[in-house]
Write a structure and sequence with these properties.
Keywords: Cell projection, Cilium, Flagellum. With 463 residues, this protein is an all-alpha fold. It is built from 18 helices and two strands. Strand 1 and strand 2 form a beta hairpin. The C terminus is likely disordered.
C-alpha cells in the first residue's frame, strides 16, 4: 500500500515477530534479514538483529544455532563500537544498544553451555554420562571457564548501562551475575571458596538494592501524586524481589554455618572431657582467620537483624501481590526453621551466640501477630529430628518422622489449629515450609510437598 521504506520495514519486522510466535523460524529469519536491511534508525536495527538472533536461538534442530547467534551478536557489537566513535551525537543511544547486545551475548552463552551446544568439542572424548554430569557441574574446568566469561560479559554490560545513566537496566545484569555466583557456591566443594562465592553474590545483590533505593528516592521526590504512584510502585516491587533474594541467600549462609556447627559438635562429642579442657586452654582450636573468614563472620553476625528487617518490610509491601506474598511466607518459614535449629545447636554446645538470633526471632514474631504464638511455641519446644526403625529388626537404617509443621519433632497441627495461619480471605493458607529440600523458587508445584492447601497454591503462583 505504501511506498515509504519506514512503513515497509515495520511491516517486515511485525511479520517476523508473528512468524516467530508461530514457531515458523525460517520465515521469521527471512523477515528479520529483510527488515535489518532497511535503514530506519538505530533502535529498529537492534530490534531486527534481536529477532534474527531469536530465530536461530530457538531452532533446536540446528546444531550450530547458538554459534550463529554468537557470531551475529559479536559482529553487531563491533559495528556499534565503530558507530560510537563516529556518531558522537548518538553516543547515548548506541551505548544503550551496545550494553543490550552484551547482555544478550551473555544470556545466549549461558544457555548454550547449559544445553551442551557450546562445549561439544571439549567433551567429545568423554562418555555420554560424563558429558551429561559435566554440563551440570559449574566447577568442571571447562564449565567454570565459560561461566566466568559469562560473568565478565554481564559486568561489561552493567558498566556500560551504569556509565550512561541507565540504572534500571543495569540491575538485571547484577541479578544474573549473582545467580551465577550462587551456582558456584552451591557446586563448590572447597569451604573457603564456597564462602567467597557467597560473599560475592551477597555484595552483588546489595549493589542492586542500593541502585533501586536511589531510583525509589528519585521517584518519591516528584511533585505529582499520580507520577509518584505510577513510577514508584514498579520500583517498590523490584526492591521487594531483591530483598527476598537477599533473604534466600542469607538463609543459605546461615544453613552453611549450621552445618559447620553440627560437624564441630559431632567431633566434640567423640572427645573425652580432659581433651576438651586441654584444647580449650591451649587454644588449639582457635586458628588465625584469613580475610574471607573474617568477612564471613562479620556478615554472619549481621544476618539475623537483616533478615528480620527485610522480611518484615517485604511482608507489608507484598500483602496485595500474591506471588511475592507467597515467596515472603516461604522465606519466613525457612528462616524460622534455620534459626530455630541454630539456637538448638548453640544451646547444645553451651555457646552464648544465640542472643542475636533471639532478638531476630522476637522482632519478626512480634510484628506478625497472627504467627506470634505458634512460631514462638515451635521455637521454644524445638527438638532434633525423631527417628523410627523401618520395621525390620535386622536393619540399621532409620527414617526421620516429618510432621506437617516446619520443625522436625513438633506435634502435628490439626485442622482447627491450621485456621490460625489463615490470612484475610484465605489468601495464604500455607503451612511453614521446611528445610533445604523445599528451597525452590515456587515454580514447580510438584516440589512443594509441605503445603496446607495445594489447590490454593495454584492461585498464588504467577508464572
Amino acid at each position: 500500500t505504501f511506498e515509504d521504506s519506514e512503513t515497509l520495514g515495520k511491516i517486515q519486522y511485525m511479520l517476523g515477530k508473528i512468524a516467530l510466535f508461530d514457531f515458523d523460524l525460517i520465515e521469521a529469519r527471512n523477515y528479520a534479514t529483510n527488515a535489518q536491511r532497511i535503514a530506519i534508525d538505530e533502535e529498529f536495527w537492534w530490534k531486527s538483529i534481536h529477532l534474527l538472533v531469536d530465530s536461530h536461538r530457538y531452532d533446536y534442530n540446528d546444531k550450530d544455532g547458538y554459534e550463529k547467534c554468537l557470531k551475529i551478536l559479536n559482529k553487531s557489537i563491533e559495528l556499534i563500537q565503530k558507530e560510537k566513535s563516529i556518531r558522537l551525537n548518538k553516543f547515548s543511544t548506541l551505548a544503550y544498544i551496545e550494553a543490550c547486545l552484551y547482555f544478550d551475548l551473555a544470556e545466549i552463552t549461558y544457555e548454550g553451555v547449559l544445553n551442551g551446544k557450546l562445549n561439544e568439542e571439549e567433551l567429545a572424548r568423554r562418555s555420554r554420562a560424563a558429558k551429561r554430569s559435566s554440563r551440570r557441574n559449574s566447577m568442571h574446568p571447562t564449565m567454570f571457564k565459560r561461566f566466568s566469561n559469562v560473568i565478565n560479559l554481564y559486568q561489561t554490560s552493567f558498566e556500560i548501562f551504569a556509565k550512561n545513566g541507565f540504572k534500571r537496566d543495569s540491575i538485571k545484569c547484577l541479578k544474573a551475575s549473582s545467580n551465577l555466583l550462587k551456582m558456584f557456591a552451591d557446586d563448590c566443594a572447597n569451604i573457603e571458596a564456597k564462602k567467597d562465592y557467597f560473599l560475592q553474590a551477597f555484595e552483588t545483590l546489595n549493589k542492586c538494592l542500593e541502585i533501586l533505593n536511589e531510583l525509589l528516592n528519585e521517584a518519591l521526590s516528584l511533585q505529582s501524586p499520580s507520577e509518584i504512584h505510577n513510577i514508584s510502585l514498579p520500583i517498590q516491587r523490584e526492591v521487594s524481589d531483591i530483598k527476598l533474594e537477599l533473604c534466600s541467600l542469607m538463609t543459605d549462609m546461615l544453613e552453611m554455618h549450621l552445618n559447620e556447627i553440627k560437624v564441630s559438635n559431632a567431633k566434640s562429642s567423640n572427645k573425652d572431657n580432659m581433651t576438651k579442657v586441654i584444647e580449650l586452654y591451649a587454644g588449639s582450636e582457635h586458628e588465625n582467620l584469613n580475610d574471607v573468614d573474617q568477612l564471613w563472620n562479620q556478615h554472619l553476625s549481621r544476618i539475623p537483624d537483616q533478615l528480620s528487617v527485610f522480611l518484615i518490610s517485604c511482608f507489608y509491601l507484598n500483602i496485595k501481590i500474591k506471588n511475592l506474598k507467597c515467596k515472603t511466607l516461604y522465606q519466613l518459614g525457612r528462616s524460622f526453621r534455620i534459626i530455630s535449629e541454630l539456637k538448638y545447636q548453640l544451646r547444645k554446645n553451651n555457646l552464648n551466640d544465640e542472643s542475636s538470633y533471639n532478638s531476630s526471632v522476637l522482632n519478626m514474631t512480634s510484628t506478625i501477630n497472627k504467627w506470634d504464638a505458634t512460631i514462638l511455641d515451635l521455637i521454644k519446644n524445638y527438638q532434633p529430628p525423631s527417628f523410627v526403625s523401618d520395621g525390620d529388626s535386622s536393619s540399621k537404617s532409620k527414617k526421620p518422622i516429618r510432621s506437617n509443621t516446619a520443625l522436625p519433632g513438633a506435634q502435628p497441627v490439626n485442622s482447627a489449629e491450621m485456621n490460625e495461619f489463615s490470612f484475610t480471605e484465605n489468601e495464604a493458607n500455607i503451612n511453614i515450609l521446611s528445610d533445604r529440600d523445599y528451597n525452590v523458587n515456587l515454580i514447580e508445584e510438584s516440589n512443594l510437598t509441605n503445603i496446607a492447601d495445594q489447590e490454593l497454591l495454584k492461585n498464588l503462583l504467577i508464572h
